[in-house]
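The instructor's notes for this session suggest beginning with a concrete chain rather than abstract definitions. Hand out the sequence below and ask the class to guess, before any prediction is shown, which regions might be ordered.
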Amino acid sequence: MDTSLNKYISDSGFCSRREADKYIEDCRVTINGKDAQKGNRVQEGDDVKIDGEPLRKKKSTIYLAFNKPKGVTCTTDRKDKTNIIDFINHKSRIFPIGRLDKLSDGLIFLTNDGDIVNKILRAGNGHEKEYVVTVDKSIDGQFVLQMKNGVKILGKETMKCFVKQEGEKRFRIILKQGLNRQIRRMCESLGYKVITLTRSRIMNITLNGIPPGKWRYFTPNELVAISDMLRDSSKTSQQNDEGFGE
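After discussion, reveal the predicted structure:
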């Protein structure tokens, strides 16, 4: 690597080239402990600091949508042989946004952008997650009504949500909440056992075109739409047990 100092600073994401020149002129930049000058070049291994702080290279942000199959665990713990990180085997360090039970399948996001995580996960921000669920016995209008209006689990009443019956034992549910194993617990409280649970959508992104076990990057349009949705979202976690549970 051999690049001009102002470009090196700009490429790090710290500031523009013009602003970098101003930092250099003000003697706020050093290379290997010596005051930098305009026109200096940066070589591989050089230690560049601004105001005494190391200049960190900007890491490119990664956002991907993964169709998780059953049996994959949403953990970064490599000791777990079924961990999602080894399954995807991405060249960059990434982590899942939220969770999807090991016995469940469907859509989950992964990223290296820690800033976005709590904005997406926090229930108070109202971001939708859609699921298709089958249970062990026939459901009826009463079941749908109870699921819609809230069920008591984990010592609290679940938020009202959209629920639609789609078959004798199958229904679609849209949550803006994410309590631990929420759908499974809701069904259990009404005397039902979940047989299959697939997350088909998170916010504006769906499983369409992503085969089981495969992933793809967010498209530019999806990133713009998500950015718009997150503009007014809080970063603060609401409660430790909330997030993209199911």
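Then share the key points. Residues 236-242 have pLDDT under 50 and may be disordered. The radius of gyration is 23 Å.
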